[in-house]
Amino acid sequence: MRKFTHLGMLLLFVFFCSACNFPKDPNNSYKNAKKSSLRVGIVPNTDSITTSFEKNFVENFAKKEGMQTQFIVDNETELVKKLENYQLDIVLGGFEKDSNWKKKVGMTKPYDDKHVLFIPRGENRLLFHLEKFITKNKKQ
Question: For this UniProt entry, which residues form the secretion signal (predicted)?
C-alpha cells in the first residue's frame, strides 16, 4: 500500500510540474518576437554611447535568440505607453534602476550595475532570456 502512495504522489508531482509553464509569457512577447520580430523602442537625445551600447546589446541578444529586430524611435512617454500596451517588447534609453517609470514597466537587472532595459510588466519569459543574456555578457 505504501508503495502505491509514493507512486501516486510522484505521479501527482509530475502532473503539476508538467502543467506549469514557467517562465510565464502572458501576452506572448517572447513567442511573438521569435515569430515576427523583437520590437524595440529607442529614446532619442539620450547619452549616445549608452544608447549605442544598448542597441548593439539588444541586436546581439536577438541574433542569439533567432529574432529579427525592429527599432522605433519616439519620446520616452510614448514609448512607455506602447510598452504598457504590448506594442513594444523592449525600450532602450539609458534608464537607471531607480527610474520614475518603475511602477509602469518591468525592468531587467542592470547590465552594468546601473542601467536597465524596460520590458512590459509581467512578461517573465522575455525577462528570463534577457537576464540570462545579461549575466553572460555583463558590461564591466
Answer: 1-19
For the chain, helix (H) and strand (E) counts, in that order, are 5, 5
Q: Which amino acid is at 25?
A: D
Write the pLDDT tens digit of every residue in 70-121: 999 999 999 999 999 999 999 999 999 999 999 999 999 999 989 999 999 9
CATH of domain 24-136: 3.40.190.10
The 10s digit of each residue's pLDDT in 109-131 is 999 989 999 999 987 899 999 99
Q: Could you write out the DSSP letters of every residue in 25-53?
A: -TT-HHHHHHHS-EEEEE-SSS-HHHHHH
